[in-house]
Structure formats: C-alpha cells, structure tokens
Amino acid sequence: MIRIDRLSKQFESNLAVDQLSLEVKVGEVFGFLGPNGAGKTTTLRMLCALIDPSAGRAWVAGHELGREDDQIRRQVGILTESPGLYDRLSAEYNLAFFAQLYEVESVAEQVERYLRLLGLWERRAEAVGTFSKGMRQKLAIARAMLHEPRVLFLDEPTSGLDPEAAHLVREFIGELKEEGRTIFLCTHNLDEADRLCDRIAIFNTRLLALDTPAALRRELYGRSVVFHLRQNAADFVEIVRALPVVHKVEPVDNKLVLQVEDPEANNPALVRALVGAGADIRFVGELRRSLEDVYLRLVGSAHQD
Predict the structure, then answer these.
(1) Angstrom distance (rounded) from CA 267 to CA 30
(2) For the segment 167-204, what is each residue's pLDDT rounded down to a tens digit?
(3) Cβ–Cβ < 8 Å for 244, 232
(4) Which pTM was predicted?
C-alpha cells in the first residue's frame, strides 16, 4: 500500500529525512516513532503529496509520488498535529465544507456518520471555536475520514484527549483496521503504539529499526524469566549459570532474573534444577521489556553514533 525507496528531504542546510526505505502493507497499522525534530511530520507530508521530496521515490495506494499527486491526495486522509479548523463555523458546517471539497456524494449522511462515531453529534451546531482541544482533535479525525480514504495518516491522534476520548479514538483505529484500511501512525505515546501497531519503525532522520514490537524486544533484550524465591537469590546463581540454556543471570534480593533461550521449553528444567538445589520457588514470571526501553536504547545509540 505504501512503498518508499530512498526518500530524502533537504531544507537548505538541514537534512530532515535521509534515504528512507520501507514498505507498509495493506490493512496494517504502522507506527512511525521518533523524537521531536526527527523528520516524522516531514515524511508524512511528503507521502501525502503536500511537499516535494529532494530525492528518492514513493508509491501510495498504487500511485507514484511526484507523478500522480492528485490521485494520492484523493486516496489518503491526513490528521496533522495542529489541524486547521474554521472556529466561527459549526462542527457540522466544517465537515460539510470539506466533504464538498472531497466531492463526497452524500455529504449530509457522511457528516452525520462521523460526528456520531466520534461522539460529537449532539454538539454539531456549536461553533468549533468553543470546543476543547480534545473535541477539535476528534473533529479533525472525522474530517480526515469523510471521503473514505484507503490510507490514513495520523499525526498524534490522541494528543490532548482525556482517557475516555483517547480510548474511543483507539477503538476507532481498530475498527478502521478491521475494514482493511491502512493506517500510518505518528505518535509519542509508546504504550499506544505497542497496543495498536502491527509493526513499528523507529526513526531519527534515518531509519533505526523496523519490526514488530515483540521482535524488537527479543532482538535487543532476549527473553528474561524471573524466579521469585523465599531465599536469597544469590545462593543459586552458580546452579542456573551452569545450564546451557541460560545466557545471563542477575540476582536481585530474592529474585533471580535469567535471560533464557525458549522459556516455554526450558523453564521446567530450570525449576527442577532450582528445587533440587533447595530453592523454595514462590512463583515464576517473565520480565517484559516495554517499547519505551526499546525506543530509548535505539534512539540513545543513534545520538552516540
């Protein structure tokens, strides 16, 4: 659905995007993560045919950037981090105006549908200038969906939303995925990206990593099992260190943190070894690294380089 080949953008002396190459599949929720100033929004604007790249090529929904820009704009919906809305107009009129620009066939029906989906129907006659930031964000999402785009670009879609509204937007993104839409999601909310995204790219001017969140965790940290004991964990370090499936051992008070190859297959042998050595095991769990751990490690390494 999206194919990018060595795409770059240079602003005078500032290289914002450096030879980015990746593919986004049909129906995928794809997370694009990076620090402020990394070039995420620049990438999004290039892919929506709003600004021209300095080099490289890209295809969105089967149309080539720079050659079929009008077709790309018809096929995509975009939510920018600071969406421009007409403050003096009502929510309903805002959407109706943009629906006409998109040449939507049933303007009134589409406007009502998305105002209801995002919980704004009861406020449809009110001026947008009176809306909270969260309500404006939901209205902007509705605007991006009016023409039923095949590809949706979302830049911080839950920014400024309270927990209930953010939950509504996340559920809405899940429904769009079930409909087969492709979603390109820029966010600083790493927990949100972990829950929503099929794959993520970590980006800082150039691509640092690309995979599923689970695969990135395994690649950087392996899998760690925590044995909670009634005794001092340090007494059993040598017992587990001697086992070939254990790659790393760290005792923390009464806990043994072990980096283990294939925990599902090898945990029983570890339990037997510890019990045989006199350990009283209270319970066993897996230490799950967060996406934040992965992100900070990759971005921190890029800064050092």
Answers:
(1) 34
(2) 888 888 888 888 889 999 998 889 889 999 999 999 99
(3) no
(4) 0.83
> b vs e for 272-292, b when ≥16 Cβ sit within 10 Å of the residue's Cβ?
ebbeeeebeeeebeeeebebe
Q: What percent of the chain has pLDDT above 90?
A: 66
For 2-211, CATH number? 3.40.50.300
Beta strands per DSSP E along 26-97: 29-33, 55-60, 63-64, 76-79
* 8-state DSSP, 179: T
**Is there a contact between 57 and 68 (Cβ–Cβ < 8 Å)?**
no
What is 219-291's CATH number, 3.30.70.920, 2.10.260.10, 3.40.50.360, 3.40.50.920?
A: 3.30.70.920
The residues of the chain that CATH labels 3.40.50.300 are 2-211
Strand ranges of the sheet holding 182-186, from the earlier edge strand across to the other edge: 76-79, 151-155, 182-186, 29-33, 199-204, 206-211
- Dihedral (Cα; 142, 143, 148, 151), 10-degree rounding: -100
